[in-house]
Specification:
The chain is of the alpha/beta class and 313 residues long. It is 37% helix and 11% strand. It has ten helices and seven strands. The strands form two sheets. It has a five-stranded parallel sheet, with helices on both faces. A two-stranded antiparallel sheet has the order 4-5. Strand 4 and strand 5 form a beta hairpin. The radius of gyration is 18 Å and the shape is globular.
């Protein structure tokens, strides 16, 4: 894969590598990522379905439009940094990395296998390119993001930091320490996207530990808060554009999503938080997603389609 085309009206520095996919193509990519997630999970036999599916559109927009990076040079100094703070939804992260060109798509089917680079939570020590830090212990990723953003400011670097947080993850006290620090240091190069699907492992977030109103809490710590439809790529693009224009404050984008999005029997079901589909369920899920693919069109960039062995038996 070559360096991606520049978007002059957003250029922040020379030699920017950015994909700049349009709205219709981003819709296609999001469906492809969901297909990859189901394929990976049925083959693995374990993993987290609901949150991976709910954040597919966010990941499509970040990796295929918003962020600067070069998959052929993962340690490029000027790259934007992405932190998956809700590390358990790594299937969607691995799918985005593969489809962006960081590694071969066929390797996605090794998810959670012995000695794989695709662990059940992202492990930087396993050698998969594109992983900035190991995550999975909830509440820690935003602190890492704050440190990276502060370092970039100190070194007068122009790259940005993007952190994907879960709404249930906001129960963690360390999140609010990070929020307070980011506001104090005016880290306008930091964006937290909250996957607000309103469900966590034990049920509705408002029942387990009420986090609402999310925007007012962040604003109290000097953040710029934006609401967005987390399944509308055009709305997400607008929110990220506002985040770039914002100066003097970090930005939180509250992405309103549906847990299990795209698969009817998984949608809005807390039971699919940490559960993988069996063969029958995976076939139904893929059938539904391929019907959606007929509506959006098949993404031309997916040269390889996964063929889980379990679905061939």
């Amino acid at each position: 894969m070559s360096f991606f085309r520049l978007r002059p009206f957003r250029r922040r520095r020379a030699s920017v590598a950015r994909m700049a996919k349009g709205v219709e193509e981003l819709k296609q990519i999001a469906v492809q990522l969901r297909i990859d997630v189901i394929s990976m999970l049925v083959e693995a036999g374990s993993g987290h379905s609901g949150g991976s599916l709910s954040s597919a559109d966010v990941m499509a927009v970040l990796f295929f439009n918003e962020m600067n990076y070069d998959p052929k040079n993962p340690q490029w100094e000027e790259r934007d940094r992405f932190i998956l703070s809700k590390g358990h939804v790594c299937p969607i992260f691995y799918a985005a990395l593969a489809r962006a060109g960081y590694y071969s798509p066929e390797e996605m089917l090794t998810l959670r296998k012995l000695h794989t680079r695709l662990q059940g939570h992202p492990g930087k020590n396993k050698g998969l390119p594109g992983i900035e830090v190991s995550t999975g212990s909830l509440g820690q990723g935003l602190s890492v993001g704050v440190g990276l953003a502060l370092g970039a400011k100190t070194d007068k670097k122009n790259w940005r930091v993007y952190v994907l947080n879960g709404d249930g993850e906001l129960d963690e006290g360390s999140i609010w320490e990070a929020v307070m620090a980011a506001g104090h240091y005016h880290l306008d190069n930091l964006v937290s996207v909250v996957d607000n699907n309103d469900l966590q492992i034990d049920g509705r977030v408002s029942d387990v530990m009420n986090i609402y109103p999310i925007d007012k809490k962040f604003e109290a710590f000097n953040w710029f808060a934006i609401h967005a439809n987390g399944h509308d790529v055009a709305d997400l693009l607008k929110a990220l554009a506002k985040a770039r224009e914002n100066k003097g404050k970090p930005t939180v984008i509250i992405a309103h999503t549906t847990k299990g999005k795209g698969v009817s029997f998984m949608e809005n079901q807390a039971g699919w938080h940490g559960k993988a589909p069996n063969v029958k369920e995976a076939k139904q899920a893929l059938e539904e997603l391929r019907r959606e693919q007929e509506r959006t069109g098949i993404w031309s960039g997916a040269k390889v389609q996964l063929q889980p062995a379990k679905l061939r038996q």
